[in-house]
Structures are given as structure tokens and as C-alpha cells.
Amino acid sequence: MNLSPLFQTAGNVCVGLAAVLYALPLQLLLWELSRKRDNGAGLILGILILVPMWLLLLAGLICVTANGGFDWLPFTRRWVTTLVVPATLALAVFSLARLDLGPLIRSQPFIRTLVGSLIQLLPALTILLVVLGLNPRFAPGLPLKAVSVPWTLCAALSLATVGGYIAYQVAAFGANQVRAIAHRFHGDSQLARKNLARIPDLDPQRDFTELLGFTGDFQSPALREAALTQLRRHPDFVARLATELKDGSVSGGSVDHALAAVAAASWTDDEKQLLALPARSAMQRITRYIRSEFRHFTKDRRQLTYKWGNRLFRTVASKFAGAGVDFQPALAGFEKAFTAPDAERN
Predict the structure, then answer these.
(1) Tally of CB atoms within 10 A around 307
(2) What are the boundaries of each domain within the chain?
(3) Is the dihedral of CA 270, 271, 275, 276 positive or negative?
(4) If I label 81, which of 3, 47, 188, 228 is the partner at 20 to 30 A Cα–Cα?
């Protein structure tokens, strides 16, 4: 194995500092944890010791790899270096895990012995590997494989265990998300069926505004169609809808619902003539409200409002294209409400 002076020096410095952290503060910490109840400070101190120690050992292992310490593996040095990094981090995770099991370790002698041995053995084995890998003259009769093979097995086992645990957590999180989405859709489906069952009991004159609320594009097609059918039973449906478009509450949402009904329903030419101007008026009223409240909108609400309004306004404008009413100023005003500087918007 040809030793590069640069890698040898850098690796020796790193392993020396790591050995100091291992021999002094880490041993003192472990001794204190074995005799006292940890109130959380031990975990913090352990992290402050173990994280830099393992980072130094990782740097030393990279130097060993660069000098051919793992050439017995059937991989190139670049691949070995790529594997050494996560494997070393997995060993560090095992060391850190010991500090987070304080009460369990104190109450179970077997676990205390097993986990305590791991936190002592893994760094010591790694230090020995780096020292012998960079300084073979220290033990000329001891082949490096006698140390690197056990270390590799421990590292592979640690990497597989930590990787499996992470995969399990990701899978569990994904499963929980799927269950949450399924539960939400199930709840939405139940609500839609409940509302659909209510539609025949709603009076188109008395409950006109409530029926309009079921005509938005976020409602199911069946619910939307049922609500529009019930609304059409109003003796003066078109005139009532035109009044809602002109005089309904913008902040309360009734104008939004009326405009959504306009976009969802089919209209005769005569009906289009009656509804075109009120529909454009509703679009302009909604735009004025957006301009007045725009500074209070969050970024997400601005994006959602623009997406909703752009789709709804263009649908209404295309539906009344031949009604003799110019919707372009209303569309341009809505666009300007989101793109113009604040001074122009107000």
C-alpha cells in the first residue's frame, strides 16, 4: 500500500483528535451517565462529543481509503469512499442511540452491557483501523485486513439497520398520508351524499342562496346538477340570479356562488341577454374586493384566488361571447389586481 504523505498526515491529525475525544470527555460522560439520572444534558453533551469525533474518524477513514486500505474489496476506491461515508454515519447513529436510552439502559443489565459495549467498541475499532491503515509500521506483524474486515462487517450491519429503519419510517409516513387522504375523501364523499339528500328538501325561493352554494366547481357533478335543477324550479329563476349577481354579498361569498352557477348552467340566448351584464358586474365587484383586501392576502391565498378567479371569469366570458357584452375590461381588471404595483392596484 503506497502511502501519500498528505493523506497520512491529515489522517493522523484527525484520528489523534478523535482519540482524545474518545479517551477523555466521552469516557467521563459515560461514567457520569452510569451513576446519575440524566435530565437531558447528557444527550446534548454526548452529541457535542460524538458528532465531531465521528466526523474526524470519517476524515481519517477517507484518507485510509485513498491510501488503499480497502483495496481488498471488489470495488474501486471511488465506490469504497462513497460507501464509507454512509457506513460511518450509521456507526455514529448507533453511538448516539445509546445516549437516548438512558432509563432503559439503567434498568436492564443486559441492554446496558450490550449498548455500552457498542459505544466503546465501535469508535475504538475505527480508531485502530485508521491508525494501522496510515501507520502500518506500528504493527508490522498484524495484517490490516484483520481489523478492516470486522470493521466492514460492523459498518455494513449498521448501515443496513439504519437504512432499514429509515425505509420503515418513510413507508409508515407514506402509509399514514395515504390513510389520511383516503379518510378525507371518504369524509368528503359522505358529506356530498348527505348534501345531495338534502337538495329536494330545500325550497328554491326560501333557500336560494344555500342552493347556489352547491353549484361551485369544487362540488361533485351530481350535487351541482341537482342544485341547479332545484334552482330552476324558482318561478323567476333568471331574474333572481341576476339580482344576486348585482346585489349579493361579495365578502360573504354569495356573488361567488351566483357566478359559479352562471358558469355551470346552460342558458338560452334570451337568458344570456338577461344575465350577461349582471355577470360582468359581479366580476368587477369581486375584482374591487380583491384589490381592497389584497394586502391582507397570504402568498398561498393570492395564488389560489388567482387560479380560481381566472378559471371562473374566463368560463363565464366564453359562455356569454355572443351576448353583446364586452367582458375584456373585466378580465383585464382581474389580471391587473394581481400583477399591478400596490399604488396602481389601489
Answers:
(1) 10
(2) 5-159, 203-345
(3) negative
(4) 47
152-176 confidence digits (pLDDT tens): 999 998 899 888 888 888 887 776 6
pLDDT tops 80 at residue 105 = no
CA distance 65 to 1: 11
Q: For the chain, how are helix, strand and coil distributed in percent, rounded to 5?
A: 80, 0, 20
Cα→Cα distances 220→2, 185, 197, 201, 316, Å: 72, 12, 13, 19, 19
Instruction: Provide the angle, in degrees to the nearest 10, between the axes of the packed helices 27-35 and 109-134.
Output: 180
Say if residue 78 is exposed, middle or buried (CB neighbours under 10 Å; 0-12, 13-18, 19+). exposed
Which tens digit of pLDDT belongs to each residue from 170-212?
A: 887 776 676 555 445 544 567 678 888 889 999 999 999 889 8
CB 230 within 8 A of CB 212: no
| Terminal Cα-to-Cα distance of the chain (whole angstroms) | 75
Best CA proximity match to 214, nearest among 250, 265, 271, 280: 265
- Using alpha carbons, select from 339, 333, 242 the residue that is nearest to residue 287: 333
H/E stretch holding 198? helix 145-198
Residue 324's region, left for phi above 0, alpha for psi from -120 to 50, else beta, is: left
Angle at Cα 60 formed by Cα 55 and Cα 61, nearest 5°? 95
Give dist(CA 152, CA 334) in Å, integer: 65
Instruction: Name the residue with cell 462513497.
Output: 82
3-state SS assignment for residue 84: helix
